[in-house]
């Protein structure tokens, strides 16, 4: 495992874990987390996969995030678009640095990281093969570009039925947006709140193995 800056273009704090099996995982932490927070997910989702885990570059009261928000539940969408493009450029550099096939990442994100993963799919779909979205909200109020084509992308959505932030309405809207644009979406709901339910992990592992 290396916690590194990598090559010249790979300049944000991150952890790279080499692996021997596809697909490579892109781990995206929640608000207040860092590049180490979701590393244990590798053992549950794809123990032999290479892993790239970057830190969010925005600070909110000292807590790292992947993009700004105006208040809880209200995203700064201009900043989100800029941070999506920034992360996409980072992924291209990381692919070259670590010999990863372009666009082969499966993003596994929690909360703010899940919202970043879905925003990547909506704005820069060429960067990801699919996503595991944990406690995910809707990234863009007006939805993705009408011409967006997510055919071939596989997405798992695992939200809690008691989640006060990623509500049932958010879940329905996000799933519909993904499906309406051609993604294959599988839902793994649980009875918890804004968290990762360990009981969903075996099914999510099987989902990732299907890539």
Explain this structure to me?
This protein has one domain (2-209): Alpha/Beta hydrolase fold, catalytic domain (Rossmann fold, 3-Layer(aba) Sandwich). Residues 1-9 have low confidence and may be disordered. The chain has five helices and twelve strands. The chain is globular and about 40 Å long. The protein has helices at 41-45, 77-98, 112-123, 168-180, 201-209, and strands at 2-4, 14-17, 25-28, 51-54, 58-60, 63-65, 69-71, 74-75, 105-110, 128-134, 154-158, 184-187. 29% of the residues lie in helices and 23% in strands. The longest helix has 22 residues, at 77-98. With 211 residues, the chain is α/β, with parallel strands linked by helices. The strands form three sheets. It has an eight-stranded mixed sheet, sandwiched between helices. Strands 5-6 form a two-stranded antiparallel sheet.
Essential attributes:
eight-stranded mixed β-sheet, hydrolase, Rossmann fold, 5 helices, 12 strands, two-stranded antiparallel ribbon, hydrolase activity, 211 residues, alpha/beta, disordered N terminus, Alpha/beta hydrolase
Number of strands: 12
By CATH reckoning, the class would read Alpha Beta
Question: What is the CATH architecture annotation?
Answer: 3-Layer(aba) Sandwich
Largest sheet: 8 strands, mixed
Termini Cα gap: 24 Å
User: What value does the Rg take, in angstroms?
Assistant: 15 Å
Query: Runs with pLDDT <50, length 5+?
Result: 1-9
Oligomer class: single chain
Secondary-structure element series: EEEHEEEEEHEHEEHEH
Q: How many structural domains in the coordinates?
A: 1
- Helix content range: 25-40%
Q: Give the CATH superfamily.
A: Alpha/Beta hydrolase fold, catalytic domain
CATH topology name, in short, is Rossmann fold
Count of helical stretches? 5
InterPro entries: AB_hydrolase_fold
GO molecular function: hydrolase activity
Organism: Pseudonocardia xinjiangensis
Protein name: Alpha/beta hydrolase
